[in-house]
Design brief:
- This protein is α+β, with helices and mostly antiparallel strands and about 80 residues long.
- It has 1 helix and 2 strands, in the order E-E-H.
- It has a two-stranded antiparallel sheet with strand order 1-2.
- It starts with a strand and ends in a 15-residue tail after the last helix.
- About 0% of the residues are buried.
Length: about 80
């Protein structure tokens, strides 16, 4: 499962910087589950990976001297 986030920061109507982060998660299914695999791929997997993307963006922008950029929380429930 891959999750890609593209973040554009605008200042005075122009893009001041853009961040593109792509993270992958490898998940293993053991036994039978009540949750269909498609539901896991669309809801649960991104919900597990996204906090790591948020932390990476916050850390990257802070280290770059851009300031603290914190992506919003997302509810992946459909």
């Amino acid at each position: 499962m891959n999750l890609t986030i593209i973040f554009d920061a605008h200042q005075d109507g122009e893009i001041s910087f853009q961040i593109k982060v792509k993270m992958a998660g490898i998940f293993e299914k053991q036994g039978e589950t009540a949750l269909p695999i498609e539901s896991f791929k669309e809801i649960n997997a991104p919900a597990i990976i996204y906090p790591f993307v948020r932390e990476h963006v916050a850390s990257l922008t802070l280290k770059a001297g851009i300031g603290n950029v914190l992506l919003p929380s997302v509810n992946f429930k459909i």
